[in-house]
Amino acid sequence: MAPRTHIIGAGLAGLSAAVNLLKAGRDVSLYEAAGHAGGRCRSYHDATFDRRIDNGNHLVLSGNLAVMDYLRDIGASDSLTGPSNPEFPFFDLASAERWTVVLDAGFLPRAMLSKAGRVPGAGRWDYLKAFRLARVGKETTVAQCLGPDNALYRRFWEPLAVAVLNTDGDEAAATLLWPVIRETFARGGSACRPMVAKEGLSESFVDPALAVLKEQGVEVSFNCRLRELTMDADRVTALTLGKDTVNVDDGDSVILAVPANAAAGLAPGLIAPDQFRAIVNGHFLLDQKAEDSSFLGLIGGVADWLFVRGDIASVTVSAADDLAEQSAESIAEKLWGEVAKALDLGDAPLPACRIVKEKRATFAQTPDQIRRRPPARTALNNLFLAGDWTDTGLPATIEGTLRSGLTASEAILLDLN
Ligand SMILES: Cc1cc2nc3c(=O)[nH]c(=O)nc-3n(C[C@H](O)[C@H](O)[C@H](O)COP(=O)(O)OP(=O)(O)OC[C@H]3O[C@@H](n4cnc5c(N)ncnc54)[C@H](O)[C@@H]3O)c2cc1C
């Protein structure tokens, strides 16, 4: 029998690993505990709106290489949309100021050369602090490196860090911000166009991948939770999936592509991040449909980012552990007030809305927790790890997740060749 890879978890890490292994002509089985794929990055039918919405707004950048490669591999390259220019509009909820960070000639040149290209209140030299990120110590936080007492930090770096690291700037690890800057902002405008799913997250990242799997004869086993890994001294020998046992034959391998807390419960002795941060999303039904999708960075309030697609306005609040403790009604009131202000809707009453709390949206990306990220290879020679919490060197984002799937699957291909 040809060697088979058993992949546990059909989030983007598991799907990325499966697509890569199939591309290399390898046999794959995929098991998912939920009744659907996509994990933390998916669309679902929402009863309030009687239509599909995303579990949370997800933004990627045009320079995210693994994202673009994955979308090409699953035939979904044209499923993202974004402004044709690399522009990040912001609105200050406290002062009602608006400005746009434009990155057309790379981050530094425009901001350094013209006042018009700078964040209001930011001095030319504030921008040079970005280079500190390249040599920052492992224990340094984003606030220590870039802030906290300057306009550029408050109006650009902090919102960016919170969005990317889902951790407040005064505890987020600055080391994780540098690869993002290096791979996108530092490569100039074409690498940092903000992009969102045209239709929905599942339509971009999940459904086309499932179609590729199906074409190759792979059906995901849904509602199929891995309960136990049976191991001998150096390898996994069987999987307990619900009530069934699946043997892991000689030459077969296993990728555990489940969240950190689930992996730690399944692989004894695994050291993995064990602190998490919430993301809260509020979706609101607008009276009118917007022609184009748009987004807006918000500072000076509770909300961080506002996305408008069709007649739905969606607000994201990252590092939102305290907010997530509040009732959906009270969150909706707060966020709607900010949406109405940002969209100039006056005192429009609260419309139909849905609040989605993801309490473990990502691991807390602090220096302490980063030390707990394990590599893809484990002490068992046929067990591999994938997921945004593994040691990708990148933040826990779609880009890092997809790369984790590639790393685990490439390690298996290397062993097989
Ligand atoms: C609200 C929100 C907003 C976000 N915004 C952004 C953004 O703007 N940009 C960005 O790049 N990233 C964003 N992210 C992060 C991104 O969604 C994640 O990094 C990514 O989806 C993680 O994928 P994963 O495959 O590692 O894990 P998951 O998506 O968690 O997938 C793991 C899968 O394993 C399954 N599973 C768990 N236990 C078992 C078991 N025992 N047996 C079988 N299956 C199991 C789960 O059901 C799940 O389907 C956001 C995340 C959230 C929650």
CATH T-level topology of the largest domain:
FAD/NAD(P)-binding domain
CATH class of the largest domain: Alpha Beta
Number of domains: 3
Low-confidence stretches: none
Query: What global shape is seen?
Result: globular
Bound ligands, each once: flavin-adenine dinucleotide
Strand order within the widest beta sheet: 8-7-15-16-17-14-18
| C-alpha Rg (nearest Å) | 22 Å
| Cα separation of the termini | 16 Å
Mean pLDDT: 93
Describe the sheet with the most strands.
Answer: 7 strands, mixed
Could you write a compact summary of the structure shown?
The protein is an alpha+beta fold and 417 residues long. The chain is 29% helix and 24% strand.
SSE layout and pairing:
Layout (H helix, E strand, L loop, with lengths): L3 E5 L3 H12 L3 E5 L11 E4 L4 E4 L5 E2 L3 H9 L6 E2 L5 E6 L5 E5 L4 H7 L28 H5 L4 H15 L11 H7 L10 E4 L3 H15 L10 E6 L4 E6 L2 E4 L5 E4 L3 H7 L9 E10 L8 E6 L5 E5 L2 E6 L3 H4 L3 H15 L10 E11 L3 H4 L12 E3 L12 H19 L1
Parallel strand pairs: 1-2, 1-13, 7-15, 13-19
Antiparallel strand pairs: 3-4, 5-9, 6-9, 7-8, 10-11, 11-12, 14-17, 14-18, 15-16, 16-17
Helix pairs in contact: 1-7, 1-12, 2-12
Bound molecules: flavin-adenine dinucleotide.
Flavin-adenine dinucleotide binds next to helix 1, strand 14, strand 18 and helix 12.
